[in-house]
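Researcher: Structure prediction, please.
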Amino acid sequence: MKKSNTLMAAAALMTFPIWSASMANSQIKDEYGSPELIEAAKKEGQITFYSALVSETEEFLIGEFNKRFPFVKVNLIRLPGGQLLTRVKTEAAAGKLTADVVDTSDPVLVMEVEHLFADYAPPNADQYPAESHTKRLWSRTANSWCISYNTALITNPPKTWQDLADPKYAGKTGMTPIPIGGSPWILAMFHREKFGIEYWKALAANKPTFFTSTASLTSALIQGEIQIGANLSNVALPKAREGAPIDCKFPEGPIVVNLNVAGVFAGAKNPNAARLFMNWSLSKEGQTANVKGQYFFSTLAGAPFPLEGYEGREIWIAKPADQIRLRPTWSAEWNAIFNYH
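Model: Predicted structure follows.
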């Protein structure tokens, strides 16, 4: 799958005025919903938002949303993907699910609870490829895997995924294990499909340090506790922009992309504010904030890569059917190889 078919470009980030009643015009209606929806969202005034994304990322995006719609308070609850889905299932079974919007990094596992979400489509639904959504769940963000490293400790970083398994990095690497959530599973699946089970064994031989999130892995990289590891571009690159001694390079070959999916809970207490938040997130303005502000990928027609110089590269997105078929067996094998419990 080429980039031209899946991940398209976004315009440069712009500054937009705060919304007011006088702005409830055709542009607002077309991009974010009808004036009636916006007014109803204003009356509700808040949403509860469950997300598997890094807190700093969500706080940035919520801030951008509030520049446009300051009257909707977003109450963020952040958990790793696996824990988030467990909480959703537990609360739903007890009839106490408080979320209005849920965003998870594991599109396959969330299918188990897709019935909990309302039918939904943004105003610009026709600008998204069919493979990026269902009738209830949409790819609000898409993250990509890179090789991240401490720039003060490594001056000649790996150029390929195979290089990451070099014995010279023994005791110096970090990784997030498969059971944490969908993103590490996607990367492990790519490695196994492209390089075989021997690549997993080579990575395991380097005795990597395990982290419960890419955020904690990134902190360890910056502090020099580890020197190198697989990371998400949207986690590492904002830190590099802030001046931290960290960088992130896409290895040669396909760029590995994971589609996060989000939806509006069918029993949402604030359904209009929830839809407004999703509409903005999937709009050109919201996707531009994703790409330019946080180095995400976007499946919206018209959006570029988050970094210059990678345009035209092949994109690898796991097929849902393969994820479902391979995950139980491959996860068990991965746990055994890495001695992960």
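Model: The radius of gyration is 20 Å.
Researcher: Thanks, that helps.
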